[in-house]
Amino acid sequence: MLQMQKVGQKRCLFLLSIFACLLFFSYGRVLKLKSDDDGRPVYNHTLAITLVEYASAVYMSDLTELFTWTCERCNGLTKGFEVIEIIVDVEHCLQAYVGVAKDLNAIVIAFRGTQEHSIQNWVEDLFWKQLDLNYPDMPDAMVHHGFYSAYHNTTVRPAVLGAVKRVKKSYGENINIMVTGHSMGGAMASFCGLDLVVNEGEENVQVMTFGQPRVGNAAFASYYSLLVPNTFRIIHDHDMVPHLPPYYHLFPQKTYHHFPTEVWVKELSYSNPVICGMEKVCDNTGEDPTCSRSVRGTSISDHLRYFGVELMCETWRRCTIVMSHEMESYSRKDSKGNIFLSRLTVPSTEVIETKTLSKIGISSL
To answer: Is residue 13 part of a domain?
Structure first.
């Protein structure tokens, strides 16, 4: 009798879990971020599972495949999307793209996460990284020099901003801008979103990142949340990277500090198989102790998969780029060998040959 009661309880929990999952995954087919009564943006699950596909696509090393990417598995979520420009900073092993999502009426900017060496070594380096750069024109705001430089001090920033201006000229000034990325790409996405608002005067900027590390201190987080309020950081269960660099609650003004708003995706399981992820929208502090900080960040596997989508390169330890001759009419390169593919610019007379490039990434990250 007791055994039958236990079986019944398990079945009940299983059915409740399925019901909860259906509620979460049927909610929010409207993709744009909304705001509640006090003006704060409202998290949209469907937008999140759409943008994670864009964040995954930027990991492609085959530029031909990326340039023509349509995402057959996305069930129409990315219908009508077109990549407009791909940027590959060969010197620093960085990659990003700018595209147009017509259903969102938005420019989508996606940044790739780390590729230049193993994720384990990258995490170990990140654990000990100190705040080491004052953010320009923001008193007391300090940030991670490596992440800041990856966006601001490479060919990525001017190429992305130039592509955005060309897209707006073709599609209209009122088009929205959505910036996304995973891991280090999420850190770069946050700096890009802030840059678009502060230095480019853009107003309709939304940022959504996946497994993003901390990038600055509490002062920086405060400035950021005021300037780019339409920001959501998705964290998958025990993903270890968002716990880095470490947050020391006893020294809140001297330590790294996340900006809001965190969305913590907590996995539900029944007898081991994962059923779905329950999403909790956290408070406006950026360091809600009841969200991902309530658990130990110990999982690399949770870092590499969000909403069932893999976010990783095909190979580690080298920056590998492949491109077919079919892309020559869209391609150009600068004097440093950095590669650009664009639909909205006249290609350079300097044609890129099909080849594989290997380069060591940014050593300071």
So the answer is: no
User: Can you give the three-state secondary structure of 55-120, one letter per residue?
Assistant: HHHCCCCEHHHHHCCCCHHHCCCCCCCEEEEEEEECCCCEEEEEEEECCCCEEEEEECCCCCCCHH
pLDDT per position as a tens digit, 288-305: 999 999 999 999 999 999
CA proximity to 116, closest of 360, 285, 314:
360
Residue 40 is predicted with a pLDDT of 76
Structure tokens at 141: 């705001």
In-domain check, residue 239: yes
Give SS3 for 215: coil
Which of 291, 296, 186 has the alpha carbon at shortest distance from 239? Answer: 296
What is the distance, to the nearest Å, from the Cα of residue 23 to the centroid of all Cα atoms in its chain? 25
pLDDT, tens digit, for every residue of 157-213?
999 999 999 999 999 999 999 999 999 999 999 999 999 999 999 999 999 999 999
Domain count, the chain: 1
The radius of gyration of the chain from alpha carbons, rounded to an integer in Å, stands at 21
As given in the structure block, the two tokens for residue 16 are 């409740």
Range 104-124 average pLDDT = 78
Q: What CATH number is associated with residue 229?
A: 3.40.50.1820
Is 268 part of any domain? yes
Angle between helices 145-152 and 184-198 (to 10 degrees): 60
Q: Which two tokens stand for residue 284?
A: 């406006």
- Determine the structural domain holding residue 226 and report its residue range: 45-342
The pairing of beta strand 339-342 with beta strand 82-89: antiparallel
Other beta carbons less than 10 A from residue 310's beta carbon: 9
Per-residue pLDDT reduced to its tens digit, 35-79: 555 667 899 999 999 999 999 999 998 888 999 998 888 888 998
33 within some domain: no
